[in-house]
Design brief:
The chain has about 230 residues and is of the alpha+beta class. It has seven helices and eight strands; from the N terminus they run H-H-H-E-E-H-E-E-E-H-H-E-E-E-H. The radius of gyration is 24 Å and the shape is elongated.
Length: about 230
């Protein structure tokens, strides 16, 4: 991808990324001259920026004097792949939870002073609770907000109760017709990743169902956290 005049950001960083974009399956080994031709830039500048990329392992020079993609790209891919596998793992569990409980299952994370749903699964029935992916909601309301607040050491009225019980339930707090139950998911001991949540119409959240929902969430939590260890 060649930069255009409207590209914003740090010029040297933009150029470095443009150099990396020159490498393709057909052009897996490139000389400074060839990169300069592709980018339309001076060889001297390409040479300087290429040296910086080489220093950090993003490209490497081979015996012919050409450059190839370096090991740091593989490291970034492995991080991306782990993140992708994690999201797939969570989505798979959300689908299971939704089919098991016939309610909407979601996964929330904290972003600064709000909570955001990053994955969700809805049941096959006529009346459902839809959770907007990427939608921002308050941290002090909803069971997922209580869990995220408590385990991030933020002020919340039932903080001690949530930490003691390991879950939160809310009834009509954010919406008079909605109820939810949430458990925390930990990346490692005491480091919360997000909140696994079941939400639906308040009439479906009687004592018996709430106990069942909580048991399902706890079971899925164990599976997700075990998978987290495998994909680290």
């Amino acid at each position: 991808m060649k930069l255009n005049k409207n590209t914003v950001g740090v010029e040297a960083v933009n150029k470095a990324l443009e150099i990396l974009n020159c490498f393709t399956e057909k052009n897996e080994a490139l000389t400074v001259t060839k990169i300069a031709q592709i980018t339309g830039d001076h060889k001297s500048r390409i040479s300087r920026i290429s040296k910086s990329l080489e220093n950090f392992g993003y490209i490497r020079k081979i015996k012919s004097g050409e450059f190839k993609i370096g090991h740091s790209i593989l490291r970034l891919y492995e991080i991306y792949d782990s993140s992708f596998n994690l999201k797939n793992s969570i989505k798979s569990e959300l689908d299971f939870i939704s089919s098991k409980t016939k309610e909407t299952a979601s996964f929330f994370v904290r972003q600064n002073d709000v909570r955001v749903c990053i994955q969700s699964s809805t049941p096959s029935k006529s009346i459902i609770h839809l959770e907007e992916i990427g939608g921002k909601k308050p941290l002090n309301k909803g069971s997922s907000g209580h869990v995220l607040s408590a385990y991030n050491n933020l002020e919340i009225n039932d903080k001690d109760k949530v930490l003691k019980n390991g879950y939160a339930m809310t009834f009509g707090e954010r919406d008079s017709e909605m109820a939810s139950v949430s458990v925390p998911i930990f990346r490692k001991k005491n480091q919360i990743l997000g909140a696994l949540t079941i939400a639906g119409h308040i009439s479906n959240f009687n004592k018996k169902n709430c106990i069942n929902f909580l048991n399902v969430l706890r079971s899925s939590r164990v599976k997700i956290e075990k998978n987290l260890i495998r994909i680290k």
